[in-house]
Amino acid sequence: MVVQNKKVKKILISQPKPEGKSPYANLEKKHKVKIDFIPFMHVEEISAMEFKEQRISILNHDAVIFTSKNAMDHYFSMLDKLRLRVPDFTKYFCVSEAIAHYLQNFITYRKRKVFTGEQTLASLIPIMQKHKESKFLFPCSDVLKKQMNKSLEESGLDHTKAQMYRVACSDLSDLSDVKYDVLVFFSPTGVKSLLENFPNFKQEDTRLAVFGPTTIKSVEDNGLRVDIAAPNKKAPSMSMALDQYIKEANKRRR
Questions:
Q1: How far is 199 from 141, CA to CA, in rounded Å?
Q2: Is 71 helix (H, G, I), strand (E, B) or coil?
Q3: What are the backbone dihedrals phi and psi of residue 116, each rounded to the nearest 5 degrees, phi first?
Q4: What is the sign, positive or negative, of the torsion defined by CA atoms of 180, 170, 238, 97?
Q5: Model-level pTM?
Q6: Do 43 and 69 form a contact (C-beta atoms < 8 A)?
Q7: What's the DSSP call for residue 111?
Q8: What is the pLDDT of residue 214?
């Protein structure tokens, strides 16, 4: 990590503001910086006709994989559009307890089989393999459908990726005259949104904080500089990586 000789005062995170307690609130107090949250992308539903073009039968699957609340929202919304009722024996595999808990908005939780991972799809694979006779449906966005997930592909499980919604770039025209010291990205779509909204963007002194190898690759492929990369050995989270960077950068006078 190379720290530029310029203080960090304003940070823009390209995601919605987290609900409840957030480590970013602690960062603001600790370093006396201002952090704004503005989503660089948004999700859009697809029509029943668009879904049918994938030639996927939801009822041919007795297990469903959920990696996000968005996926769950659009999965159950699509069921309504198609006027389908999922059988009571359907099993649900959720990457986290928070997502599993969210299921209660759609089903009678105590009557269903719900399995939980530890924040990642990879942590869910061993649990899913105990049900290797099942056919798994993986509701996802257009972006995720195109990406290969190594742990899932190599699991040997019978699974089908089903696009239930699309990810679109948001209109960021309100930011045209706003300057930030650090821009934080968590996905290639966020980087794409920046460049679509500001095709003449020049990085110069703006630091880019980037999470994950695919997002880092997207930044570099577009000729931009990665100043803060996470996760890493010293910082497994973006908030920790920012904390370490700001501590060094704000030691300097400029």
A1: 25
A2: helix
A3: -125, 135
A4: positive
A5: 0.73
A6: no
A7: G
A8: 86
Task: Please identify which residue in the block is written with the tokens 């290797």.
Answer: 132
Query: What pLDDT score does 88 carry?
Result: 85
DSSP assignment string, 131-186: TTTSEEEEEEEHHHHHS--HHHHTT--EEEEEEEEEEEE---GGGTT---SEEEES
Q: Report whether 134 contacts 60 (CB < 8 A).
A: no
CA dihedral (62, 66, 69, 73) in degrees, to 10, reads -30
Angle between helices 238-249 and 23-31 (to 10 degrees): 10
Contact 124, 117 (CB under 8 A): yes
Backbone φ and ψ of 125, nearest 5°: -55, -50
102-133 tens-digit pLDDT: 999 998 766 569 999 887 888 899 999 999 99
User: What mean pLDDT, rounded, does the chain reach?
Assistant: 90
**Domains and their CATH numbers in the chain:** 10-40+173-249 (3.40.50.10090), 44-168 (3.40.50.10090)
Give yes or no for residue 16 having a pLDDT over 60. Answer: yes
168 pLDDT above the threshold of 60: yes
Q: Which of 143, 128, 74 is nearest to 106 (CA)?
A: 74
Q: Name the nearest CA neighbour of 63 among 163, 166, 158, 164.
A: 158
Instruction: Give me the half-sphere count of Cα atoms (radius 13 Å) on the Cβ side of residue 236.
Output: 0
C-alpha–C-alpha distance, residues 239 and 242, integer Å: 5
Q: How many angstroms separate the CA atoms of 62 and 208, rounded?
A: 43
Q: Which residues pair with 159 in a beta bridge?
A: 136
Nearest to 179 by CA among 5, 9, 3: 9
